[in-house]
Specification:
With about 240 residues, the chain is of the alpha/beta class. It has eight helices and ten strands. Strands 2-1-3-4-5-9-10 form a seven-stranded mixed β-sheet, sandwiched between helices. α1 crosses α2 and α7 packs across α8. The chain is globular. The two termini are about 20 Å apart.
Length: about 240
Amino acid sequence: MKPYTFRACFIDPFQGDIGARFATDTLLAKKAAIYVDNSSEYAKGLAAHFKQSFSKRDGKIVAEYSYAQKETNFQVALTKIKATQPDVLYVPGYYEEVGRIIKQARAMDMNCAIVGGDGWDSPKLPEIASVRALNNTYFTNHFSPDAESPEVKAFVVNYLKEYKQKPLACAVLGYDSVKLLADAINRAGSVDKQKVAEALAATKNFKAVTGALALDKNHDAVKSVAIIEYKDGRQVYKTTIEP
């Protein structure tokens, strides 16, 4: 832990765990396959914790395969995955490869639920995967612009007014980071770095746009995770899972 470093976003292990909780509790999945970008520490971290959490929840991992960034043909691995008949396919990569994987999986009549992480959060994903292929897919994210909280509603209205489009998670996290720092400075009554760091470390129930936020002993954010579903090419708020 670095004494003057703090996160406004949750960390990857937590996101992988939430993905597994959603798969077992909401999708009622008993068997899962994992298809991971082996050139990304982000993707490998999510996959490892999804596997651990899914297994602890009495789920069975029936297949594990990997790919590399910039690959375009995933049919060999998908054929092997399809043969295991998973209830859910976990693909914690970035939208470019994920879009191609989803498109090719659906073309092979793989109709199981497909779940991923916040690397899916891009308006380009429906263009790559196709609108129809994205049905029955879900991903964990830091917030949904369609959530009902007053903080989300106010932020989205102001963001639309300024930028003429709905905000992605990165925009909201940037906003939350600045507000979090400002709140700590206010509570510290000083801009002295030690006092501000102490105030940040003591953060509890901060009303961020991305949810009520606390910071743990490692200065990592503890907060809820939004589940986003794709319906007819549109991101739709599914649910919120609390830590």
